[in-house]
Design goal:
By secondary structure, the chain is of the alpha+beta class. The chain is built from 5 helices and 9 strands, in the order αααβββββββαββα.
Length: about 230
């Protein structure tokens, strides 16, 4: 709505300015025919008309980009680092054994990245692209683990976390983790829509560098609830 208001206001101001300029030029005896002759010179024929149209198109695209830039930037910041649509995924880290600091599972943050659509989860699968091992994560909700299909439809911009334990209660070192889970795919089922996003080894390696850093504070977001 704000973009539309800006466009309307810009168009109105532009028309007023152009009308005033035209009135002044006509009063001075320098009307449209003289403008065309002055601007195009010997190109007042077919080529001149083509160049004029290209110029107007370029001006229109520039104006649209200028007006749409705030919306594009806001959308990019809102869903930054989330991969996929309508549910986007962001690497969140690992489950860690407090006793020996080994890794016992995976964590990802999910988000309904749409602006208006409710999204109902059915199934989620996390797969190692190295050895093909597949995990069925649970949704972490208020300290309780529930299946993805037990959540209510997820409202726009709501975030949630999924957690998956390694099979056979494995506890992995960093090197073991990278050798087995250095490349990961998340497949999401939302009704009839099935899609997958992947996380490569550089992305996962970079998270180890931030392993002991404090997370940046994030603003409150809509939350996911359990269906009854």
């Amino acid at each position: 709505m704000r973009v539309f208001s800006k466009a309307a206001a810009g168009a109105f101001v532009g028309k007023c300015f152009a009308s005033l300029l035209i009135a002044i030029c006509v009063a001075l005896g320098f009307g449209p025919e003289q403008w065309a002759s002055f601007l195009l010179g010997d190109l007042s024929g077919y080529l001149g008309r083509v160049l004029a149209r290209i110029g107007f198109l370029a001006l229109g695209f520039t104006t649209f980009a200028f007006l749409a830039r705030p919306w594009i930037e806001r959308r990019r910041r809102t869903n930054q680092n989330f991969r996929g649509h309508p549910i986007g995924w962001k690497w969140s880290g690992w489950k860690i054994s407090n006793s020996d600091q080994r890794f016992s599972g995976l964590q990802f943050t999910g988000k309904n990245v749409t602006k208006e659509d409710l999204v109902k989860l059915h199934d989620i699968f996390i797969t190692s692209l190295i050895n093909g091992v597949k995990l069925s994560p649970m949704v972490l909700l208020g300290g309780e683990m529930i299946r993805p299909d037990e959540t209510n439809p997820i409202v726009p911009q709501a975030e949630f976390m999924i957690v998956a334990d390694f099979p056979n209660n494995e506890m992995l070192t960093e090197d073991e983790f990278l050798s087995l889970w250095g490349k990961i795919s998340i497949k999401t089922h939302t009704g009839k829509l099935h899609y997958a996003v992947s996380f490569d080894e550089p992305t996962i390696r970079a998270s180890f560098a931030r392993f002991h850093s404090d997370p940046e504070p994030t603003p409150p977001t809509p939350y996911v609830t359990r269906s009854r």
